[in-house]
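Structure request: Contactin associated protein like 3, Astatotilapia calliptera.
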Amino acid sequence: MDTYSIPYMQLVLLVFFLHILLQVFLCVSISLLKRGNSNADTVVQYKLEQPVIARFLRLIPLDWNPSGRIGLRLEIYGCRYTSSVASFDGSRSSLVYRLSVRASWTVMETISLKFKTLKNSGTLLHAEGQRDHSLTLVLEKGKLLLYHLQGVSSSSGGQLLVSLGSLLDDQHWHHVKLERLSTHLNLTVDKNTLQVQIPADLSHWHIHTKPILSNRNFHGCLENLLYSDINLIDLAKHGSSQVAIVGNVTFSCAEPVSVAVTFTDSHSFLQLPGLTSWSTGLVSVMLQFRTWNKGGLLLTFGLPQQDGTVFLYLSQARLRLQISKAGRSSLDLSLSFKNDHLSITVDKDEGATAHISISVPLTSDSQLFFGGCPTGESAQKCKNPFNTFQGCMRLLNLDDQTVDLIKVQQRLLGNYSHLQIDMCGIIDRCSPSHCEHGGICTQSWSTFHCNCSNSGYRGATCHSSIYEQSCEAYKHKGNMSGHYYIDVDGSGPIKPQLIYCNMTEDKTWMVIQHNNTELTRVQSSAERNQHFAYFDYSSEEEQLVAVISQSEHCEQELSYHCRKSRLSNTLEGAPFSWWVGGAGPGQSQTSWGGALTGTQQCGCSLQDSCLDPSHDCNCDADYDQWTEDSGLLTHKETLPVRSLVLGDIHRPGSEAAYRVGPLRCHGDKNFWNAAFFDKETSYLHFPTFQGELNADISFLFKTTSSSGVFLENLGIKDFIRIELSSSTEVVFSFDVGNGPLDVRVKTSLPLNDSRWHRVQAERNVKEASLRVDNFPAATHEAPTDGLMHLQLNSQLFIGGTASRQKGFLGSKITPGVLPGCPGHCSSYGSLCQNEGRCEEKANGFSCDCGQSAYTGAFCHKEVSATFKSTTSITYILKEPFELSRNSSGLPSSIYSDITLRGENISLSFSTNQSPALLLYVSSFYREYLILLINKNGEDSQIAFSLGCLLLINDCVFLILEDLNLTSDVEFNSIKSLILGRVEEPDGLDAEMAELASLGFTGCLSGVHFNSISPLKAALLHPDSPVIVTSPLVQSSCGSSSPANTYAAETTHSLSGTGMDPGQPLVNTIRSDSALIGGVIAVVIFVTLSALAVMARFICSRKETYRNQEVKAAQPEDSNEFPFSGQPDSPSAPSENQKEYFI
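Returned structure:
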């Protein structure tokens, strides 16, 4: 062959030509000539129905064309192929191969074969092991099923291990391979492989190709049946004693004449004329059909003498005959007419038969229409009120004579349109299934659908998880503490898990429980030297590993309480006790809570606080008294704790107890792995994005720019890109070989507002979708028969692009890229409630509840406590000696921090006591402020030391705002604030002092006095200046989340009781000015008058709701609050007890 010098452009042509033809397998035995591309930009593709594997490619330059380009010819040479074939007739014919007695055991065994058949059922292979264990490979309804049986007489068929393949009864060769490696078995059908686990008793196989159960006789051909490297068909063919032939087995494969026809679309039909023999009155029509559609016309013909039509059609996957009655449906069917008798048989092996007596006269002039009806002049003879049949038909017989479809193809018989003759072009789009995560695949002729119900995933292929990947993500959506499903790897293979999320003020904890988190006592026993404890976690192994890996910090409490029970023997010797932790089976650990990993130490050794300085653990002192070694395990590689072994428990007097707490992790490495781009030329680049068939991309961004590229990855022709095209539009662009496609989401609000926005893009074989925040998602369906594989080969660019478009400015290594993004409170600060302040964190935000009476992740949780009559909480604002030491003639100017220039009081209460003291504020100058419930229970009162009472009607919701009491005298030097009983009332008259000594019985919640939260300080901050008498326990009595609607209706609200902070409070005891008193009296009178009018109006409306609740609980003439002049007994909550918010 001559050598040619190929110019650059011609070399490009050669590469394109080679790239095209490498995607197509040419059959060597058939002379096939296809025209290739004529330039360097055009791609020409030819798809063959059956691939042929070639070994060599030969490029032959042929000639130069007039434009100076070279023409090439590509030849493909196949491999030498050896074929050993056996044919089985379906009448219990088989081959039996038995291993020799001296056969050595091998770690790996393989069985491979090829088969082809027209029957959709039959036993291909039966392999027997030990103790009656066996495997059976069965073709059933066109699929291969692998069964495990124990006892060959089992009538149930055994346990189904796996199902693989589809449409395998198409008379084409299919390759099957079984590989056993120990107790694992790989089953491969054509190019699809699944792995299953098999019993160890199947380590040796005795191979049969005979049916073990009835009605499973294989009828077809096997080729190259290999056991490891042994060709069993060759052994049988040469009469080997190891292979027994049973029944009629021949060593050739006859090719049955079976011409299939494919009805491709809504214009498809096949028209056949009647036979001359039909004049005798005996008519027989038989065919096989296959389809995915639940409806479609199979056959129709006219009845001219009766002016009628017969329709045989599918409806809702049922076969129906429209003359006067309907029948049933499936695959193999035969229709026969004899005089006035019509018989329909569906799948005769299953015995579904229907009979109907009706006159159906057919003659040689009759025309049969299969699949549909023609258009034009012939349409007058055929009307189709149903859908056109889409699928395949074969073995079409009229009066037991096979219809020659090749003549039909040559237009020598009948008529047709839009048919593919001599092939069945049906495609099983559910094998293998593109539905992920257990989604159920169903299909029609042109597409498939995935049912994602109860899978925890969504999308066209059940790809994207409906759950968040961490508790941190749930918190940023405003969720409170509780159980949530966590999908740690998003769209990955790990299943979602139910985890408790503890949303605290500073951290968000993922809590994973196990089977024993309680303190467990171990008694000494002379009969056993060790005690074993095993811990089973609520999450699966892969879930645990993923949670620990993606968390910033994990910990687990490990406590050991001991009495004459040591942990370590000596520093050099083996320890008495240890624990096992870490991924998989875990590893033994000898370090205990609070100590460094890998040491035989406890936490006290690091703090130099062990009972015996000569030992590194308290328990190693071996004292005859209870002590403990407790602490947190924080080394993630050793978590979780899987088991515990306690050794020193057999001596007399030895006692021990242990506790292993739940696994707790916080921080999500994947949630706030943010980067800041401050230049348009800045970007990050990563390895090529992998997502050939299914891929999803999600991220958060914030920016002030109106456009920019978020990410881009290019291939030779394919690409994927997500960009901000304008301030209100995000575009997801890609090309998988079918041409560029754009999915766009336009928003009603600008996205360049420097707030976080979420983008979620997904592309799969069915569609592409794009979501932005909570705006409606946009989708774009993929072409039905287009290319599916996304082929990329360059780097993935984040925040920029390789195609020189405008990069992204904002948050989402080159110069201009910084780790982290500030400004979380601008997006999430609104989640902080009840005067909580949003604080910026490096990874997210937190709500500071220091100035709030509430607690919790968002300052949303009320702090409540149940009070008894003896309960008292005193919050000390200033000690007496500080006052005397810093006394001054102008205390208001010196002690402005304890001078009330205006106050804001809020609290909730629930009680059936009347009268009752809610709040008492005193000063060193005998000034006071009292909030109380009055004697008859009908009014609440705020009492000031000026001698006036502010009445608040309890039957309505009232809001007091800007209640100003003005004077030139200030409420100075506040000493304390008291909730509950006042032990030493100072400056109160006798009546008030007696009332203060009665205390309060009921529930107080959310108490807030200016910036002071005395109840929260007493319950949660014991180091604060609080004195508590009588036991005080936090409770949920003041929960603002009622369990029912009635509770919501009986919760009254009075908020915003505040004074102008620019005006001081009055104290008439220290001032005898009548003028001041008069001004105050006028102000109070005007205010109370306005309140009375408002109260009358609102109370009349509120009474309707109250009566709905209490009418059934009390007589009509009873008082709503049946309180006496003395405090009522709080023995049981009353139905009439109400909750107030002040």
